[in-house]
Write a structure and sequence with these properties.
- The chain is mainly alpha-helical.
- It has 2 domains: 8-41, no CATH class; 71-317, MetI-like (MetI-like fold, Orthogonal Bundle).
- The protein has 14 helices and 2 strands, in the order ααββαααααααααααα.
- The chain has helices at 8-23, 26-53, 69-76, 79-111, 117-125, 132-142, 149-156, 170-199, 202-210, 215-226, 228-243, 247-252, 271-281, 286-317; strands at residues 55-56, 64-65.
- A two-stranded antiparallel sheet has the order 1-2.
- Helix 4 (79-111) packs parallel to helix 8 and helix 5 (117-125) packs antiparallel against helix 8.
- The protein is globular and about 75 Å long.
- This is ABC-type sugar transport system permease subunit.
- The chain crosses the membrane at residues 25-44, 89-111, 123-143, 163-183, 226-246, 286-308.
- Belongs to the binding-protein-dependent transport system permease family.
- Its main location: membrane.
Length: 318
């Protein structure tokens, strides 16, 4: 018999190849670009922002460590932060329940249309893909006290004798912002509810119809319970998005002078708007702005956990 001798130089490449194939490193190599970009553009800024919130820094000079002073000042000595947080919650209370209710009713009506279903879906979804800048201009012109169509219609109907300063009234400013949010997002809520109604087995509706169930009874006893998870999802995401509200109030009052930032009596000032003002516009307090951002982050996390616990508890009971 003939025996083949293998040199050490030949054994090493084979051993490396076996180890390389056993590790299955290719998935990690393909995931490496995402991991690197995540740590570079997400994780590192998140950690750096928290470290910066513990300092006093104007972006130019040296950083001064102040500990939790920025957080204490924000929560106890900054009335505008409390005002902005209050405004954000008020606007959410005005808009979120109506979006849920109107989106569900609109989806139910369109779902039972015999003709023109696609047309009405498209028409109602168009505002959602409209740019926020365009929406800001539309509502600014609609409620303008001189040339606004709202004042023109009310005067034409004899309900008013002269134009009203809608955008200079603190309460009406919040109502108009809520209307902007509802008008823009109603189509999205409608589409989500339509998808949920489509997923409901039609056998349930047919059995209810045979048993003599009316339209209202079917809607309240079958459709609403079957859409519970979708409703919870929309409520949670709406609260998270509402706490980050910025585009609508900023664009509605973006044309005003800097002294009226935040609308009349700061009624349109939201938490994100205040964060941008304190960090980049009226001042360069990056440490204070980071503390504000992290405070908002904690509030969002708390609301998310609370919503999850409520929805999980309901799911277990049902």
């Amino acid at each position: 018999m003939r025996t083949e001798t293998v040199s050490k130089a030949e054994v090493r490449p084979r051993a490396v190849a076996v180890i390389w194939s056993g590790v299955k490193i290719w998935p990690y190599l393909f995931a490496l670009p995402f991991i690197l970009s995540y740590f570079t553009f997400h994780f590192y800024p998140l950690v750096y922002s928290f470290w910066l919130s513990l300092h006093d820094w104007n972006g130019i000079g040296a950083k001064t460590f102040v500990g939790l002073r920025n957080y204490v000042t924000l929560l106890t000595k900054d009335p505008l932060f409390i005002k902005s947080l209050y405004n954000t919650f008020v606007i959410m209370i005005m808009s979120v329940p109506l979006m849920i209710l109107l989106g569900m009713v609109l989806a139910y009506l369109i779902f039972h249309l015999a003709k023109g279903r696609v047309f009405f879906q498209t028409v109602n979804f168009l505002p959602y893909i409209t740019t926020p800048v365009a929406i800001g201009f539309i509502f600014s012109f609609m409620f303008d006290w001189q040339t606004g169509i709202v004042n023109a219609v009310l005067i034409k109907l004899g309900l008013m004798t002269e134009g009203y300063y809608w955008l200079q009234d603190p309460l009406m400013a919040q109502v108009i912002i809520a209307l902007m949010i509802i008008w823009r997002n109603l189509g999205y809520f409608m589409a989500i509810y339509l998808a949920g109604m489509t997923a409901i087995p039609q056998d349930i509706y047919e059995a209810a119809k045979v048993d003599g169930s009316t339209g209202l009874h079917t809607f309240t006893r079958i459709t609403l319970p079957m859409l519970k998870n979708i409703t919870v999802f929309l409520i949670v995401t709406s609260i998270i998005g509402g706490l980050q509200l910025f585009d609508e109030p900023k664009l509605l009052y973006g044309g005003w002078s800097a002294s009226t930032s935040g609308g009349p009596d700061n009624a349109a000032l939201t938490v994100i708007w205040k964060f941008i003002n304190d960090s980049f516009i009226t001042g360069t307090r990056f440490g204070y702005g980071s503390a504000l951002a992290y405070t908002l982050f904690v509030i969002i996390v708390l609301f998310s956990i609370l919503s999850y616990r409520i929805s999980a508890g309901k799911g277990e009971k049902s």
